[in-house]
Specification:
By secondary structure, the chain is mainly α. Helix content is 74%, strand content 2%.
């Protein structure tokens, strides 16, 4: 539904622009909406790493929702960072698991909103290379720490052996690590509000449910935060450029901004 809505809005916009070549009412609508679409266009271009990642995990979700459930269960298990896959091929497991949304793509809209707003804002401040390292740190080190705790718990008899084969994919690890980095560079009451949201979404489940996956999100958050602190020592934050219109196009009758 999320993907369909997005595509529908894009198609509707270009249909409206096409109608604007012949009808005045459509041309007036295009003129009113153009400043907003131009800002959206500029926002996307200003955070290329974030929006490329959104496109990739959205595409994988479309595959999940249009394929047989048993096939997707097998694919996500094969692309998981569980103990079996990490033992066989750790590099491939860590790489491929970063592009799958858990539970057959459940919560895709939420991921798109968080990445498209908060994480994109953080990328504009940190810069794309540092944001890539922060997200990767949350996913990679969060996954490895989770696996280490998981292995110790299995050996101590605190978790059943079947957990070693469980599915654990990592878009959420990238998300919480990146969000922690975003909260770090907020200020005033906004930082307090962001920290409170992070506690409720990451810390509280550890206290209440304390599943291995809850600890995984906590580890990913701390790893992303640590990476952000270290990378801030490398250099100051960027001052984002103003969101300017990246392109100018025109209809046959009247110039309008994209």
């Amino acid at each position: 539904m999320t993907v369909g809505l997005g595509l529908g809005l894009v198609v509707a916009w270009y249909v409206l622009r096409g109608l604007g070549r012949r009808w005045g009412w459509a041309r007036r609508c295009v003129r009113v909406l153009s400043p907003w679409t131009a800002r959206l266009h500029a926002w996307v271009l200003s955070a290329p790493i974030t929006f490329t990642y959104i496109a990739v995990f959205t595409a994988s979700t479309v595959v999940q929702r249009t394929s047989p459930p048993r096939l997707i269960d097998l694919l996500t298990k094969l692309n998981s960072t569980n103990l079996l896959r990490l033992g066989d091929d750790p590099l491939e497991a860590l790489l491929t698991s970063a592009f799958w949304v858990a539970d057959h793509g459940s919560g895709l809209a939420g991921y798109v909103v968080v990445f498209g707003t908060l994480v994109a804002w953080a990328e504009r401040r940190y810069g794309s290379p540092r944001m890539l390292l922060i997200g990767a740190s949350g996913h990679v080190f969060g996954s490895l720490l989770t696996a280490a705790v998981e292995k110790g718990a299995i050996e101590a008899g605190r978790l059943p052996d079947r957990i070693a084969f469980a599915t654990d994919v990592g878009v959420s690890y990238v998300e919480v690590g990146s969000c922690a980095a975003a909260v770090l560079i907020m200020s005033g009451w906004i930082r307090l509000a962001g920290a409170a949201v992070m506690f409720v979404s990451v810390g509280l489940p550890v206290i209440v449910d304390h599943t291995i996956w809850d600890f995984g999100h906590l580890f990913a958050t701390l790893c992303g935060l640590t990476a952000a602190v270290l990378l801030r020592m490398v250099g100051p934050l960027r001052k984002p450029a103003p969101l300017r219109t990246p392109l100018v196009v025109s209809t046959a009758a009247d110039p309008v901004d994209l």
